[in-house]
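Please review this one:
***
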Amino acid sequence: MGEPTKVVSREQQRPSAVAASPSSTQTTTVPPAPLPSPISNSTLLQPSIKKKHKTKVFRVFRSVLRSFPIITPTACKMPHLPGGRLDASGTVTSGVRVSGTLFGYRKGRVSLSIQESSKTLPSFIVELAMQTNVLQKEMSSGMVRIALECEKRGDKDKTRLMDEPVWTMFCNGKKTGYAVKREATEEDLNVMELLKAVTMGAGVLPGKSDVEGPDGEMAYMRALFERVVGSKDSETLYMLSPEGNNGPELSIFFVRI
């Protein structure tokens, strides 16, 4: 009689198969992707209300409008807005205080940045249709009224007034062109970082002065503004001057018409 046949079960065969091809069962651990680096090393705080990102079509439309020249001034009527906020009882109440900064290169367009305080990231930036040196001359007259107008939307449209992408701008009743809302750039954040300790004041930052001379300097003016909401279609920023200061008066109107 021959030797007994040895029966090998499937369970006994499986380890040898694994050993023969270890790569078939070996798993590779992929390290997680690194987080994207921030836009800058800014120490500014986040505002309490997060901003919404623009759609691509708005960014393209904005870039086209920025290429338009500043047009010849023509007369217009200034909008009449309420001088306070109406509460539920119909009583006029005062607005909230925010930090506002006008800044730009002398021969470049001036921008307006609104922050909850000087230590927070900008919650709103609009590039105005006016050169910085022209606005400085207007401010020297003692009173400046800037109106930013856009078309009124339908009743069902929920777009906030300050989220409008493009505005028609008037300065002291004269049309100057189109103002464009935009996201904060690296340069904007650097300016806000440098001015973090400044509550009110005006001056000049070096900018590109080492290359372009005085025209490469960035002028700025920072002040506290009272933000007053008249309705969903009108808001106003009133610059607050220190007590006893006979400095320039500046009001900025945002209105849908």
Observations:
- The chain has a mean pLDDT of 76.
- The CA atoms of residues 11 and 17 lie 10 Å apart.
